Amino acid sequence: MTDLRLQSYEDSLDELDLAGWLDHIAAVHPVRMEMTLDRVRAVAQKMDLLKPAYRTVIVAGTNGKGTTSVFLEQLLLHAGLSVGTTLSPHVERFNERMRFGGEDFDDASICDAFAAVERARGEIGLTYFEFSTLAALWLFREREVDVGILEIGLGGRLDSFNIISADIAVVTSIGLDHEAYLGDNVEAIGREKAGVFRSGQTVLLGADMPASVLEQAQTLHCRMLRSGKDFGFVEATDHWTWWMADQRIRVNHKTRFPLGNCALATAVAAQLVDVSALALDAAVAGAHLPGRFEVGRLNNREVIVDVCHNPLGAEYLAARLGRDYPDTRIIAVCGLLVDKDAAGVFNALRAVVDVWICLSTSGERARSGADLASVFAAQSHSSAIEVVEDLDDALQKAGSLAGPSDVILCFGSFTVVERVRPRVIHQQNMSDSA
User: Fold this and answer.
1) pLDDT greater than 60 at residue 1
2) Rounded to the nearest 10 degrees, what angle do helices 128-143 and 38-47 cross at?
3) Domain identity same for 266 and 378
């Protein structure tokens, strides 16, 4: 490339806004994912990104990765550390994927990161996820963060963030999801998730781990800390208590995050800093994640928004609804992708949902509302199941069916929650501030 062409190329990079960059990285290597780390590792080595922070924590698992990561982030921030966090996927804005100090990076910072990756990659094609991974690592290194928290997007062994040999590895939960990529049973999925482990590493595990995860940790001589055995929580009516070894901390504030994830995050934090009741109070107050049991309103009806999209998540959601909304009539608006276990989701929630409204999802893995309704109906001919393909029409229908004391549950694909939140959560926030 001549000097003149090189200068023109450099100038064109500086002119791209975030939307332009997102279009660009989606087009550079249009295959959605490739099961290899060779390309992303090669560029990371060129950019000196394999140690992006003083300490790193990698968080894998089927469900609970985001809430565990954000709760850990808040605990470490309270301790005075600088913290970078990655989350995946985003709900409304790409910026949600990369955080510093508990806040999303701004557009300009992310554009700078993308430009740095683009200049370094040369002829190496990178997927959208690999580009995002390297951009986040570059931002963490530039900010000289004390702790980088890296949430695995899918699997573990072949996720882009697994180019990093983390100081601490976390597995939150194991359940059936993404079977086409990870395997059709929990042991196979567990092996993929445990691919983030390193020899002699400190590993913290959520509840009910399959044998494959435990065996991998033992094979690598990891220092293993397990929920329910080495740490955990006890829930009471008006408080909860975190415990680890001989330490007990009472927390008098409720959280919308699953307490198992909060306890796991606290155990991780305890490997890095001293954890106190004040730190836990601060984490409960500061930890927030879009689309995780968020409560809003629609036409004076209470609405719960959640990204639950697999049977394991549905089991937790059903238990939460049964506990927090006993004897409440629930109208569910649901949209799921075609590769999700819709029957498993329905069966987990059928005891708490009274009416189902099925809508269509979008994208390459879209599923029609009619197809979803047929899967649900095959599980139970006695359930009230309706098809309303359009989201606005589905919300209007749910509102017309819901009485003053009923609850509307909007859940499923991230693409569904992305479209629902502005209609029910943001309106609620505006109402609260008025």
Assistant:
1) no
2) 30
3) no
State the CB neighbour count (10 A cutoff) for residue 19.
Answer: 10
Contact predicate 390/398, CB 8 Å:
no
Under 8 Å between Cβ of 126 and 190: no
Between CA 340 and CA 363 the distance in angstroms is 14
Does 53 share its domain with 201? yes
CA distance 113 to 55: 21
Provide the CATH number for the domain around residue 118.
3.40.1190.10
* 268-278 per-position pLDDT tens digit: 999 999 999 99
pLDDT at 434: 38
Mean pLDDT of 126-151: 97
Q: What pLDDT is stored for residue 432 in this prediction?
A: 45
- What pLDDT shows up at residue 180? 47
Q: Domain tally for the chain? A: 2
Nearest to 423 by CA among 389, 388, 399, 387: 399
**Burial track 294-333 (b if 16+ CB lie within 10 A, e otherwise):** bebebeebbbbbbbbbbbbbbbbbbebbeeebeeeebbbb
One domain for residues 245 and 379 = no
Tokens 């290899």 found at: 36
- Same domain, yes or no, for 211 and 336? no
Structural domain for 329, as ranges = 294-433
Specify whether 44 is located in the same domain as 100. Answer: yes
146, two tokens: 């004390």
Q: Which residues pair with 244 in a beta bridge?
A: 231, 247
Q: Is 60 exceeded by the pLDDT of residue 22?
A: yes
pLDDT of residue 70: 97
Domain boundary among 240, 266, 286: 286
User: pLDDT tier at 426 (50, 70, 90 boundaries)?
Assistant: low
- Residue 306 near residue 329, CB atoms below 8 Å: no
